[in-house]
Amino acid sequence: MDGETFVFGSFRLIPAQRMLLDDGKPLRLGSRALDILIALIERAGETVRNDELIARTWPDTVVDEGALRVHVAALRKALGDGRAGKRYIINNPGRGYTFVAPLTRENVHPGPAAAEGTTAAGNLPVPLSRIVGRNDLVAALATQLAQRRFLSIVGPGGIGKTTVAVAVAEAVSASYADGVWFVELASLPDPDLVPSALGTVLGISPSGANPISGLTAWLRDKQMLIVLDNCEHVIGAVAPLAEAVLKAAPQMRILVTSREPLRAEGERLHRLASLELPPGSVDLPAAEALRYSAVQLFNERAMAAVDGFTLDDANVAAVLEICRRLDGVPLALELAAARIDVFGVRELAAHLSDRFRVLTSGRRTALPRHQTLGATLDWSYQLLSGAERTVLRRLAVFAGDFRLDAAVAVAADIAPSEVVDHIGNLVAKSLVVADLSSELPRYRLLDTTRLYCRDRLKSSGEFQEVARRHAEYYRTFFAPAEAESETRPQAEWLAIYSRHLDNVRAGLDWAFSPEGDPQIGVALTIAAVSLWVQLSLLGECRERVERALAALEGDEAVTARPRMQLSWALGWSLMYGVGRAREAGPAWATTLDLAEQLDDRGYQLRALWSSCIDQFNNGDLRAALDFARRFAGLAAETSDAIDLMMADRLLATAQHYFGGSRRGAPSYRLRVGAACGLGAATADRPCAVRDASVDALFPGSHPMAARFCPAGASRGRAQYRGREHRRARLVLLQRPRPGSMPDRFLGGRSRCRRALRRDVARSYRAPPNPPVEHMGALLHRSGDRQARRYRRRAAGVTWRARTGRRREVSAALPAAAWRNGGLPRQGR
Asked: Would residue 136 be called left, alpha or beta, if left means φ above 0 and alpha means ψ between -120 and 50 degrees?
């Protein structure tokens, strides 16, 4: 620290002279307090432990921490710490002290003069705070710089490019005999001044018509690292300069920071990512949250801003929300932490929707564009061409990631090829993030960038039209989703459609807003029903469908079809929701009435099947049988084998619940025979084989059950295969001679019973309860008296959950169905 001066507030510290000045006048301070101040400033922004301060201040004396507290208190009093909101030193209880005031270093060593031929260590700035979460990256980039002569660190504003570049340069500084030289280009207004800026730092004056030639001639035999910082606005001048220097001086290395690549010969690119964040929507205790670098940085800066701040389990949820919503961008996290003293953690998290007004307390000594979050994005936005600005602000309509064809759709008045080019440029300039991990590339805007560009989109007057294109695109995109859910494996279907849920929500919010288009909203709601069903978001499905139904206006003949589709979706979400199953009946009745008016057999079958199941759930078996007969009559007019089997199943189940298992047996034989004739279709519709095997138990057709159950289990989708194997075991174990099936499939009677008991324990409170029902059936076959208890338990849980009633448990199904159940009389 010899020859250096540190300035903070109105104070100036000169360690070499052991002098502290206040507005130019010497400040009387004890030697111990001055030693403490120098030790803290050497590691500004870091917590210096109490034992380190004691060892530094009293090297040959044994003292306790009480003496340290006395001298720190005297130092704070001399500095006026705490008066008028000024903070210089904070205490981290039980750990140590931290110097937190903005600090400026003066009297940097000048560059070498060409005339004298002298060299120096360089002018690399000394970091005044600890680098968080980048240690491994710094080491990796230092290795790359030793192998590659030209390295560019690229990323969006505030991501920490300069911090990382300085750390890398510091790590390799001993390798360069002629030093490491830092050239700040952020304040340079004219690209033509880049060569002279470099010459000024190096202490030479390039002259003549071609200043680059003078620089390269002087650097020809130098072993030196040059750091060119913030090059994005003068990139056209930096690229040829870097190429010329590297070609002329074989021992030179150049490290560049920019928001976009230089695209120069020999350039090695590293795109700097945000700090590490915890997985989305995962709640963590404070100790585990601090394992993530974004949380570490916020915590350290918050401790520096607010004396006594502690990250604990009470506020960790709000801190995680702040870190996630700010995308782990270091500058945004530091600006947020600086506002903790005003808002507190929870209020700050609640105000992040207005972050451009809230996050405005950057360091006074920082570059102007780093003092507020808005200024950082203003700088990047102004560097774009007019067409790039247009595309970028239109991309802000997306709520999450988007595909390239979606971007082309919302920027409809720009040629598709131009939109693709502009998105490529925006990715290069770190304003759009590209995800190339899947077969189709996907893109997204960081949340802060999206909010900034959304404001720009609204102020441009384009928002309504762009939002309309966005909603229309997703209406078209989801149009085939329902049909594909029947043909694609569920995992594949979800991989295609589930990631667009946020965009569907955004499109619906706009469509049903006062400025939106309800017709688009209705169509998008209908198209997206399969998405909510597949994701089990039945509550959201019900709310969205009810909103769409309320928005239907106009001639009844025109709105009949969408009303029919929405009514079916409403009934489905009510029947499989919690506590509202009894409300589904009117929705099914409306669906059936409209389907008959429109002569839509597909929806007639849906409505009849759903009405039958609804009556089963409500215990009205006569009505259920009537609906089953109507379903069977309509299905008989079709040639769809699945519909015919479903008709047989409904009829036989209704007869079984009446105790007429023998009358149901022929129906099941037809059903099983139809399954035999499906051939290749069984590979696509494993549920048909599975249901044939399970349903065959009711009339006691154990040989048929044993024949089909293994096929249904093995052909089931991977995510259901374990469950189907358990159902298969249940079927096979009920055969008169269960030992005839290979043990590798059955796993043994006792193993099956243990598996079913685990299922019972896991699903006791969740309707419907097939594991409980299956355990009851298994025990019944075995002559176990506990069978009745299990089966009544299954009925009671399902009945209470679906109807909201806690009485009439025995009315869930007729008593005859539970007493007889089409099963042998043993163990009754």
From this structure: alpha
Pick the closest to residue 697 from 736, 658, 744, 724 (CA basis): 736
Strand order in the sheet with 442-444: 402-403, 442-444, 433-435
Q: How far apart are CA 154 and CA 257, in angstroms?
A: 6
Q: Show the tokens assigned to 714.
A: 């093995």
The whole-angstrom separation of Cα 295 and Cα 278 is 9
Q: How many CB atoms within 10 Å of residue 472?
A: 19
Q: How far is CA 333 from CA 91, 92, 302, 535, in A?
A: 22, 20, 9, 33
Q: Are 471 and 520 in contact (CB under 8 A)?
A: yes
**What is each CA distance from 713 to 552, 579, 706, 757, 805, in whole angstroms?**
44, 32, 11, 20, 35
Residue 128 CA to residue 394 CA, distance in Å, equals 40
Residue from 292, 356, 359 nearest 319 by CA = 292
Phi, psi (rounded to 5 degrees) for 642: -65, -45
CA dihedral in degrees (207, 212, 216, 218; nearest 10)?
20
Which uninterrupted H or E stretch holds 92?
strand 89-92
| pTM confidence score | 0.63
Report mean pLDDT in 10-residue bins for the chain, 828 residues: 73 81 76 87 85 84 81 85 80 83 64 39 75 87 89 88 90 88 83 85 72 86 91 90 92 92 90 86 82 88 80 87 86 83 81 70 53 75 87 91 91 88 87 82 86 89 93 94 87 90 93 92 94 88 92 82 91 77 83 89 88 81 85 82 79 70 46 43 40 42 42 40 45 40 40 52 43 48 52 48 37 31 29
Q: Residue 173: how many CB atoms within 10 A of its CB?
A: 14
